[in-house]
Amino acid sequence: MASPSNSKFYSAFSLAAALGAAAVAKKGLNTSWRAATGKNPPANPADPDVSLPEAIMWAALSGTLIGVARMLATRRAATYYAKSTGHLPPQLQKDGQDAKNAPAPTS
């Protein structure tokens, strides 16, 4: 059974990993945007002075890449926790993903 301190450690560790990954992804995305478009990414895509196609592209790219980076970092933190403790973090132990517990398909 996981102790409360292990659970708190995992929460803090996964948060730090996710924030770090998001910062790295944003920096890489900003650099890639400048290389591809020749200009800085929109500071605020909701600003009416930013063209709609540019705002949509920036929102889609940044949301997707930063979300994926955070998810990968959190998964990495969970893997590290599991290797260190021998079990998944408490937050991930009952995620409903076990196929044997899935409802039977209906026809």
From TrEMBL:
InterPro entries: DUF4235
Name this protein carries in UniProt: DUF4235 domain-containing protein
Signal sequence extent: 1-16
Residue ranges, annotated region (Disordered): 84-107
Pfam families: DUF4235 (PF14019)
Membrane spanning stretches: 55-73
Protein keywords: Membrane, Signal, Transmembrane, Transmembrane helix
